[in-house]
Amino acid sequence: MMIHFILPGDTLENIAEKIGLENSVYLKEFHNQYCLKEDFIDDDLIPGKKLLLPDFTKIKAYNDKNDAPFKSLELNPKIVFNPIGFNEKFKIAIKESSYAGGKVVENQFSYIASLQWIKNELGEHLFHFTKDQFSNQNETKMESLAIESIRPLYPIEVFVNAKGEILRVALKKEILNNFNQIKEKLLDLFPDKYAKIYLEEFEYTVLNAHVFDEKMKEDWFLKNYFSSFRNPFENGKSFFELNLDKTLLNVQQTAKLTDNKEEILLHQTLKSKEENQNDFTVNVTVSKNDGMIRSLNLSYSYNEFSALNISEFSIENI
């Protein structure tokens, strides 16, 4: 038996985690069995009082019961990936805010994303991805140029593996074959010298498959929709990596209980905030039937050059 003096902020759950006890209910049960009457625990822990802790042998005996809540099937879902026949549209909203020197700069952007499953060949699933109905709160000429440049390239081909993780992104052959005509039309629409410089860089990206692939993998919809969030759960947690704004995040994922038998609710946070000063929170709704995301709400903040930057990103099935 061990003795722990309760500190402010202590809970049965975090103490149990520290000593390796899987089900915290046994912490109270053990203490109340051996403590003096005046030290009996009814509800909350009282700082300064003693808490009797089981020894390693007793902890193992408790853990062998295998009845910890986080081991339930509901909190360790198996997320399938069965996209055959999938053809859905989503409302995408992005809000970026920067706080520095008492000033706030905000930019909001939205569009409709279409995602259609095409085929499964040699273990790879092919999707067609399209963006449309763009809306920008602070629309500029260069932003209009960027939108009009990418529009003729759709649908873009997205290849993912059997787990739903993105492999590569490519343009259809007919788009590449007709790119000269696409470029000429864009030069007619945007005849100034700055547009010409932009379109030269755009052409380089389009005609270099590797560059285009890497560029498209930075798309917020694609990188979140086809991330490794389907990694298996163990003891109520799942882990994967996500590259966001060129920062590799180690993400911890838990499942939430829900009465909806057709959905899986997931909550994602940073695995360890000590590793990274960024803040990352995501709530995801996934279909149990096909493992496809129905909705996603993400908030990501980081400090850079004495400015606090916050990105909010959402996906809603429509």
Individual helix count:
9
* Mass-distribution shape: elongated
Distance between the termini: 57 Å
Strand content: 35-45%
* Total strand segments: 13
Report the uncertain regions: none
Order of helices and strands: EHHEHEEEHEEHHHHHEEEEEE
Mean pLDDT rating: 93
Report strand order across the widest sheet: 7-6-5-4-3-13-12-11-10-9-8
Structural summary, described in words:
The chain has 318 residues and is of the alpha+beta class. It folds into three domains: 2-67, Roll (Membrane-bound Lytic Murein Transglycosylase D, Chain A), CATH 3.10.350; 87-92 and 102-225, no CATH class; 238-317, no CATH class. It has helices at residues 12-19, 25-34, 56-63, 141-150, 173-177, 179-189, 193-207, 209-216, 220-225; strands spanning 2-5, 50-53, 87-100, 103-121, 124-136, 156-160, 166-170, 238-244, 247-256, 263-270, 279-287, 293-304, 307-317. Strands 7-6-5-4-3-13-12-11-10-9-8 form an eleven-stranded antiparallel β-sheet. Helix 6 (179-189) runs antiparallel to helix 7 and helix 7 (193-207) packs across helix 8. The chain starts with a strand and ends with a strand. The model has no long low-confidence stretch (mean pLDDT 93).
Helix-strand layout with pairing:
Elements lengths: L1 E4 L6 H8 L5 H10 L15 E4 L2 H8 L23 E14 L2 E19 L2 E13 L4 H10 L5 E5 L5 E5 L2 H5 L1 H11 L3 H15 L1 H8 L3 H6 L12 E7 L2 E10 L6 E8 L8 E9 L5 E12 L2 E11 L1
Antiparallel strand pairs: 1-2, 3-4, 3-13, 4-5, 5-6, 6-7, 8-9, 9-10, 10-11, 11-12, 12-13
Helix pairs in contact: 6-7, 7-8
